[in-house]
Amino acid sequence: MKTRKIKNLVVSEIGMGCMGFSHGYGKIPDEDYSIEAIRKGYEAGCTFFDTAEVYGPNLEPQFKGHNEKIVGKAIKDFRQNVILATKLHIPTDEVKADGVYKTLRNHLEKSLERLQTDYVDLYYLHRINPAVEVEEVAAGMGQLIKDGLIKGWGLSQVPVKIIEKAQKITPLTAVQNIYSMLERGVEEEVIPYCLKNDIGLVAFSPISSGFLSGKVTAKTEFEKVDDVRKFVPQLTKENIEANQPILEVIARFADLKNATNAQIALAWMLHKYPNVVPIPGSKNQGRILENLGASNVELTDAEFNELETALNACTVYGHRGFDESEGRSFLQVKHK
Ligand SMILES: NC(=O)c1ccc[n+]([C@@H]2O[C@H](COP(=O)([O-])OP(=O)(O)OC[C@H]3O[C@@H](n4cnc5c(N)ncnc54)[C@H](OP(=O)(O)O)[C@@H]3O)[C@@H](O)[C@H]2O)c1
Q1: Closest residue (by CA) to atom 36 of ligand 1?
Q2: Is 60 exceeded by the pLDDT of residue 93?
Q3: What is the pLDDT of residue 222?
Q4: Catalytic: 55?
Q5: Considering all CA atoms of the chain, what is the largest pairwise distance in Å, rounded to the nearest integer?
Q6: Which residue, 18, 176, 194, 301, shows the most beta carbons closer than 10 Å to its own?
Q7: pLDDT score of 329 more than 80
Q8: What pLDDT, on the 0 to 100 scale, is given for residue 321?
C-alpha cells in the first residue's frame, strides 16, 4: 500500500475507520470477527486505524471504550508498526473541576489503557465544546506531545476559523472532517488551508455512509438499532433516488477501471489532493479489503478531469451536516 505523510506521521494512504465494529451501522459483529477484520486490514497494508473513546453501542456511557478495546486487542502484536488515532470529548463539568490539560490527560490515560499502549499517534478533539477555548485545548495537546504521550493532535468537524486559532498555539497534525463526493464543503476553505499549513485532511464517511458504493437503494431498510443511516438526510428514499445520477457517473468509471464504485469514490479524492487520507468504515471483512484495494486504482489526470467535470454537473440532494459542535452534533440532535 502506498503511504502518505501527514505532518510527522507516515500512514497508509487509505486508513480503516473502526467505528462500525461498535456503533453507527446496525448490529455489531462478534468481537473475534472484528479483531480478525482489523488484522486482515493490516495484512493488506493498512497502517492507519481510527477509533474514539465514545464508540460503543448506541454511544451509551456504559459502553465507552468498547471500540478502543477491540482495536487495542487487534493491533497489540504490531502496535509499533501502525499509526493509531483516537478522539475525546471534553465535558464542561470536568474542565471546570480539573482544567483543560488535566481533563485531556485523564481521558487519554483511560484510552491508553483500553488500547493497550503507552502512546497515541494522533489524538483528536472529537467535537468543539463552545464553553472551552480551542486555544486552551491546543496548549494542553502541546503539553501531551511534550509528555511523550501523543505524537500529534487534531480537530474534528471544524471550520477554518477554529483551525487557525488552534494552529497558532500548537500546529495541528490533521483535521478529520466529513468529505466525500456528496459532501464537498471542505474543498472551499479547509483543504486549501490544510495544504498551505502542512496539515493532513483525514476524510471520514468517504463513501457517504455506503451510498456511493451503489449498494444502498431506496428500498434498503436500515436497522432498527443504532444505525445512523436512519437519520442521514442524504439517505432518505427521495434523496437516494434524486442522487442516482451521481451513482451513474461513478459506475461508468468503475467499469472503465475494472474497479468497484467504492474504490472510485476513494481513488477520486486520493488523486485530487496529496494531503487527503480517507478512512472508510466497514464492519465486513470483504468490503474492508475492497476499500483498501482502492490504493491500486489509479486515475490518470485525463480520467480524473472527466470524472470531476461529470460530478460537478450533478446536483447533490440532501446533506449530512457540517456545522457540528459539542451538544449540537448530528447524532445528538437526531437521537433526542
Ligand atoms: N470524526 C467524526 O466525527 C467521525 C464521524 C463519523 C465517522 N468517523 C470515522 O470515520 C470512519 C468512516 O466513517 P463511516 O463509517 O461513516 O464511512 P463510510 O465508509 O462512508 O460509511 C460506512 C457505511 O458504508 C458501508 N460501506 C463501506 N464500504 C463499503 C463498500 N465497499 N461497499 C458497500 N458498502 C460499504 C458500510 O457498510 P458495512 O459496514 O456493512 O460494510 C457502512 O454502512 C468511521 O469508522 C469512524 O472511524 C468519524
Answers
A1: 282
A2: yes
A3: 85
A4: yes
A5: 58
A6: 18
A7: no
A8: 59
Active-site pick, 25, 55, 101, 273: 55
Higher pLDDT, 254 or 317: 254
DSSP structure string for 247-271? HHHHHHHHHHHT--HHHHHHHHHHH
**Ligand 1 atom with the shortest distance to the CA of 206:** 20
214 lines ligand 1 (CB under 6 A): no
User: How many Å from the N-terminal Cα to the C-terminal Cα in the chain?
Assistant: 42
- The residue written with cell numbers 490533521 in the block is 174
Pocket test for ligand 1, best of 88, 178, 207, 297 (most atoms within 8 A of CB): 207
CB distance 293 to ligand 1 below 6 Å: no
Pick the CATH number of 3-335 from 3.20.20.100, 3.40.1440.60, 3.40.50.2300, 3.10.20.30: 3.20.20.100
Per residue in 139-190, pLDDT tens? Answer: 999 999 999 999 999 999 999 999 999 999 999 999 999 999 999 999 999 9
User: Cα(232) to centroid of ligand 1, in Å?
Assistant: 13
Cβ of 262 closer than 6 Å to ligand 1, yes or no, is: yes
Locate cell 455506503: which residue? 210
